[in-house]
Amino acid sequence: MTGTILCVAEKPAIAKAVASHMSGGAFQLSNIPGNKYVKNYQFTFNFGGRWGQCSVTMTSVLGHLTETEFGSHHRAWASCPPEDLFDAPVYESVAKDKVSIAQNIAVQARSCRALFIWTDCDREGEHIGTEVRKQALEGNPRLEVKRAKFSNTERAHVLQAARQPIELDERQANAVAARIELDLRIGAAFTRLQTLQLQTLLSSLTDKVISYGSCQFPTMGFIVDRYFRVKNFKPETFWLIKVIHVRDDIKVNFSWRRVHLFDRAVVTIMLERCLAAKKARVTKVNERPTSKWRPLPLTTVELQMMGSKYLRMTGQDIMKTAESLYTKGFISYPRTETDQFDKAIDLKKLVEKQVPDGSWGQYARGLLDGNFRTPRSGRHNDQAHPPIHPIAWVSPTALNASEKKVYEFVVRRFLACCSEDAKGKTTEVEIQYGEEMFQAKGLIVLEKNYLEVYVYEKWESSQQLPVFQLGEEFEPTEAKINEGKTTPPNYLTEPELIALMDANGIGTDATMADHVAKIKDREYVGTRTRGSGRSAVTEFIPTSLGVALYEGYNNIVSAIPGCPSLSKPFLRKEMEQRMREICAGTKTRREVIHESLERYQEVFYLTKSRIEILKAACQKYMLGS
DNA sequence: GCAAGGTC
Predict the structure, then answer these.
(1) Which residues, if any, are the signal sequence (predicted)?
(2) Do A9 and A144 belong together in one domain?
């Protein structure tokens, strides 16, 4: 035996899974003083190569160990002008509630020859790895430090990762360090500025914190943006030609290729030309197989979007529920960007676990009996976690109402991924009538396949079209003008908001729901229900404070070309891009912090000198509220 | 009394 190796994972669940695989189940478990979640696992493992047979102590942290804060001179709000926070010194220290975890690592490191870091293989994981390394080296400065590269906790994959350790990615860790410092400085500076300025303006704001965050504000911005589009909407009248033809007792509605026009006179002339031509000619008859694709493997963003659409839960509730299902071992890790399954995962074995279920067990059986298909692969892979999938079957009686809903969704989605696409047939008839083109479509669903188990999506046969021959001419039963009005867009719903955040790089899969909850808590936005019963959806409406902040910041920068508003996602996107440059090695942490601070400082001083504009917006919308 | 990101 050649010494002991200390292994540290990002969370207890990973430590447990990895320890189980490496030890073959034969480990000694011990608690650590001061924390009930973190455990130490002791066993032996043959790493092969230069490491050989070693004792192993496997433990974990609970996410980040440290926090970054201003020094005591700058902590009180009145201690300095807010702009000082852009260059006041910041200090990194072990968070109070993590001290015992940090000590455990330092103590264990003393008797070890090497440290293997098993944090998630994503950006934050690399940074957490450097935090772990620092603690371990404090216990034992001679420690050799390696990093395990793994993207799931499948047995063979874990063993392979243990035997071929690599190095921490310092660049990714540096990118995160830059993000941490920037978020703190910018968030604190703007929050203090606007809170102190606006609190004294209106009595309704006296004891409110009016926080600014590079994710909070753009999230609020999406909601206000939509609100103004709804509010400023002017309906317009349009006209269209509708052609109806009855054949074999089937009434066929042909829709106009131009959809509609906004000039009644023009549409009238076009209809007259159609009627003058008397006969319509069939220019296209198309009958072809069609399919509705089964869904992609489940990511966090998709879970939240689908969940708030179909399960009537908020993104935050869905995530909380998914986390509890995960800690109980029923589903895989719920925070993932990956929408492709690794080949090494035995999907059929996971399908088999669902056979006992009363609702979808039969369907799972069918997959095993020959209906199984390899899931489609999406284009995302975070290299840290597999798509969300069920790990074990659980009786519905063992779950509460929310857990039941989320678990059922995860299972049905998984089974749908492993199924055949739905199959159908579309018929398309195109006619020329006068100078105008019209079209009718019919759909027959032939095989529902995945839709049998994925009950959230609908795909139904439409009315069947009668037979039309290519080139035939007929006189339509009726042709007339219909009038309509354009309708305003709806207020933003949660799935739409999550999609916008995702597309604009606002927040991560783990934090999006938190940002939404935060701006509600800050009273920048509220929610209400649109519709009723099964079709009810929750929509977001800004408060007068939200509208005032949005408009105030837009007005502050509007006269300055190239100066983006704080309510738009642009500055955050730019910061994200710079972080990627650190990862690519084209920029350093110092350069990025400097550049990003300059960008935000420009807006800050502009806001400070034009603070009356922000105040005016608050007075405009909030007086009397 | 400030952020966003991990995780319980």
Answers:
(1) none
(2) yes
pLDDT band at A304, cuts 50/70/90? very high
In a domain, A366, yes or no: yes
Please state whether strand B lies within 7 Å of residue A83 at its CB atom: no
Q: Report how far Cα A211 is from the mean position of its chain's Cα atoms.
A: 23
Residues 38-77 of A with CB under 7 A from strand B: 62-64, 67-70, 75-77
* Confidence grade of residue A47 (pLDDT, cut at 50, 70, 90): very high
**Residues A54 and A136 reside in one and the same domain:** yes
The domain in which residue A40 lies consists of 4-168
Give me the CATH number covering residue A552.
1.10.460.10
Give the residue whose CA sits closest to B2 at C1'.
A188
pTM of the prediction? 0.90
A280 token code pair = 């319509």
Q: Are residues A9 and A140 in the same domain?
A: yes
> Which contacts of A610-614 are long-range, i.e. CB under 8 A and separated by 24 or more positions?
A610/A556, A611/A197, A613/A552, A613/A555, A613/A556, A614/A194, A614/A197, A614/A198, A614/A548, A614/A549, A614/A552, A614/A553, A614/A555, A614/A556
Please name the residue whose C-alpha is nearest to the C1' of nucleotide B4. Answer: A183
Q: Distance from first CA to last CA of chain A, Å, rounded?
A: 74
Check if the beta carbon of residue A295 is closer than 8 Å to that of residue A455. no
A346 phi and psi, to 5 degrees? -85, 90
The spacing between the Cα labelled CA in A73 and the C1' in B6, in angstroms, equals: 28
Number of domains in chain A: 4
Domain with residue A83: its CATH number is 3.40.50.140
In CATH, what number is assigned to the domain containing residue A394? Answer: 1.10.290.10
Residue A553's Cβ-count burial label (10 Å; 0-12, 13-18, 19+) is: buried
Which of A's residues 490-509 have CB atoms within 7 A of nucleic strand B? 507-509
The 10s digit of each residue's pLDDT in A387-396 is 999 999 999 9
Q: Strand A4-9 to strand A114-118: parallel, antiparallel, or no bridges (unpaired)?
A: parallel
Q: Give yes or no: residues A542 and A603 share one domain.
A: yes
Does the pLDDT at position A556 exceed 70? Answer: yes
Please check the confidence at residue A609 and state whether its pLDDT lies above 90. yes
Of A residues 465-484, those with CB within 7 angstroms of nucleic strand B are none
Task: Inform me whether the pLDDT recorded for A306 exceeds 60.
Answer: yes
A321-335 as b/e: b if 16+ CB within 10 A: bbbbbbeeebbbbbb
Q: Are residues A514 and A604 in the same domain?
A: yes
Reported as a single tens digit per residue, the pLDDT across A423-462 is 999 999 999 999 999 999 999 999 999 999 999 999 988 8
- A74 and A38, same structural domain? yes
C1' (B5) to CA (A320) span, angstroms: 17
Residue A280: predicted pLDDT: 95
Strand B contact with A214 (CB < 7 A): yes
